[in-house]
């Protein structure tokens, strides 16, 4: 028997209209050198006008509308104006190497790029290599008269505010929930960037997932600050979920410094703020004696969240970090780690161990682990480890025109993540490592994530990254690359002595190298690729 319910289209214009009609007084604040606060009512009017601008510029019916921008209220206008007029928002990662930006923009066939004036100097040298870009719209995020790159005297260039002032607001209507709403390329930590194309439906359902308490638990009462860039997997869904819930938004603009972020957390009374671990690691030294009583939730993911970091936040602010796992390909939030009711009475230390896991899949997403290279499921006993695979309402089925024909899904419809994980009897995922980052020693695996987790709990260690280096007998052995806390004098032997009782003997790194800084990727993750290159010819003594 068939259900007899309406076939209602889950499209982003329905989220837009909620914010416009139900929450016109809620605010969107952008920080930085030219701070500005708009109400959702004003934002909605501007977003409708921006839809008119896209028509005036002659952007094709499903044309790609690119952004090269910080997190800002204007970026949020683009987040809705593009998809709600049938176009496809394409957020370019401003921190990629120029060749990669050029590759991505050409691959996506971007027709127009909206650029922050503070980023114009970075963007201008790329333009002549982007033959399909017909318009560049400059969004002035600097104070009047502030120095910055000159806008060229070129008919392709326009001023955002002038276009908006001249445009008429348009009606939003999206025919089909399965049409593309936005696209985002993987940040390329492990290879060439690949395009992921989100539909209206997947984005809508992911937003609901973010609102659930099993997900991020974002609510109308929140003031949400996505520190995670809007070009990193749609700011993890926060920029869609906040207008859906009616939560106010705060964007850092171009000031991503720890001091700038702390100032916004305090002044704007932010209640929920998300970013990769390096963001929170950077903030930690500033938190002594600071109280952030309003901040109730700190979602963090994108790479392993060290237990020591989460605990440091709990001890300093009274709130631990909420770990979530996901990928650009999973919209991105796929699992989140909450301490379940049955574990609430456990000692804090054990609860911290639970929070250090990736946690349960959100409603709408399923997980399994399989033997590498197969589709044979492995048991959920927290012992067996295998490739993590996912399926669900906001999981990518395939990449956008992959150059290498890469198959993202298995023959039975699960997405291959390239992560290695274990799952416990209750379904809680523990990420062991990325397949590419595992240290392969004598045919066995050593988890770099687990070693880093332990190393970062050492009081003298500021950052730790473990990579495999070539070894004549064992194939690879772990090398610990350590950044010491300022003023610390710990030696390699001290670090190894500390690790010795905590890990199996054969897991102990063969050497410790002290470095000034762990190289970071374009989205602020530890770049193991760069470290491996640096230590490619490392000779273990
Ligand atoms: P890229 O693969 O280019 O870095 P993504 O941001 O999509 O781009 O990265 C997804 C990857 O980040 C995952 O496959 C996983 O390896 C890692 N990751 C994300 N969240 C976590 C987490 N909570 N713990 C461990 N690793 C994580």
UniProtKB/TrEMBL annotation:
Q: Which intervals hold domain AMP-binding enzyme C-terminal?
A: 450-525
UniProt keywords, alphabetically: Fatty acid metabolism, Ligase, Lipid metabolism
Q: Return the EC number.
A: 6.2.1.-
* Single annotated GO MF: ligase activity
Give the main EC class.
ligase
Q: Which PROSITE patterns match?
A: AMP_BINDING
The answer to keyword Ligase applying to this record is yes
Q: Does this UniProt record's set of keywords contain Lipid biosynthesis? A: no
Query: Where do the AMP-dependent synthetase/ligase domain residues begin and end?
Result: 17-400
BP GO annotations: fatty acid metabolic process
* Pfam families in the cross-refs: AMP-binding (PF00501), AMP-binding_C (PF13193)
Record-stated family:
Belongs to the ATP-dependent AMP-binding enzyme family.
| Name this polypeptide is given | Fatty-acyl-CoA synthase
Q: Which organism is it from?
A: Kribbella solani
């Amino acid at each position: 028997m068939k259900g007899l319910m309406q076939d209602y289209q889950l499209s982003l214009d329905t989220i837009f209209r909620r914010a416009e009609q139900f929450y016109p007084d809620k605010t969107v604040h952008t920080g930085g050198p030219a701070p500005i606060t708009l109400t959702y009512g004003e934002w909605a009017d501007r977003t409708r006008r921006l839809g008119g601008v896209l028509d005036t510029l002659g952007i094709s019916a499903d044309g790609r509308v690119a952004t090269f921008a910080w997190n800002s209220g204007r970026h949020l206008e683009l987040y809705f104006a593009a998809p709600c007029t049938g176009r496809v928002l394409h957020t370019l990662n401003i921190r990629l190497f120029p060749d990669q930006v050029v590759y991505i923009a050409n691959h996506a066939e971007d027709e127009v790029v909206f650029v922050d004036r503070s980023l114009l100097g970075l963007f201008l040298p790329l333009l002549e290599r982007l033959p399909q870009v017909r318009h560049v719209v400059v969004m002035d995020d600097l104070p009047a008269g502030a120095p910055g790159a000159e806008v060229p005297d070129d008919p392709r260039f326009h001023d955002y505010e002038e276009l908006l002032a001249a445009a008429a607001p348009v009606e939003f209507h999206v025919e089909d929930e399965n049409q593309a709403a936005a696209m985002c390329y993987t940040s390329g930590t492990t290879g060439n960037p690949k395009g992921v194309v989100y539909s209206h439906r997947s984005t809508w359902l992911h937003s609901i997932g973010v609102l659930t308490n099993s997900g991020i638990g974002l609510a109308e009462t929140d003031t949400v600050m996505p520190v995670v860039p809007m070009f990193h997997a749609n700011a993890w869904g926060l920029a869609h979920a906040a207008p859906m819930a009616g939560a106010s938004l705060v964007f850092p603009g171009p000031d991503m410094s720890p001091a700038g972020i702390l100032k916004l957390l305090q002044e704007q009374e932010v209640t929920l703020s998300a970013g990769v671990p390096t963001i929170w690691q950077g903030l930690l030294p500033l938190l002594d004696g600071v109280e952030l009583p309003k901040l109730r939730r700190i979602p963090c993911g994108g790479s392993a969240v060290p237990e020591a970091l989460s605990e440091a936040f709990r001890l300093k602010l009274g709130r631990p970090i909420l770990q979530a796992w996901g990928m650009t390909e999973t919209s991105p939030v796929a699992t989140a780690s909450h301490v379940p009711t049955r574990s609430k009475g456990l000692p804090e230390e054990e609860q911290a161990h639970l929070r250090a896991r990736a946690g349960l899949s959100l409603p709408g997403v399923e997980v399994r682990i399989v033997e590498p290279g197969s589709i044979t499921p492995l048991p959920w006993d927290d012992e067996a480890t295998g490739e993590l695979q996912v399926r669900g309402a906001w999981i990518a089925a395939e990449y956008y025109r992959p150059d290498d024909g890469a198959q993202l899904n298995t023959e039975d419809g699960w997405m291959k993540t390239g992560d290695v994980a274990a799952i416990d009897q209750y379904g809680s995922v523990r990420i062991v490592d990325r397949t590419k980052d595992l240290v392969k020693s004598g045919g066995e695996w050593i988890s770099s994530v687990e070693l880093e987790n332990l190393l970062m709990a050492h009081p003298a260690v500021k950052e730790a990254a473990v990579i495999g280096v070539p070894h004549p007998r064992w194939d690879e052995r772990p090398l610990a690359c350590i950044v010491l806390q300022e003023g610390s004098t710990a030696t390699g032997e001290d670090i190894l002595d500390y690790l010795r009782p905590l890990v199996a003997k054969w897991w102990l790194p063969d050497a410790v190298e002290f470095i000034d800084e762990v190289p970071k990727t374009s989205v602020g993750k530890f770049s193991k690729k760069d470290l491996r290159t640096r230590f490619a010819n490392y000779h273990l003594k």
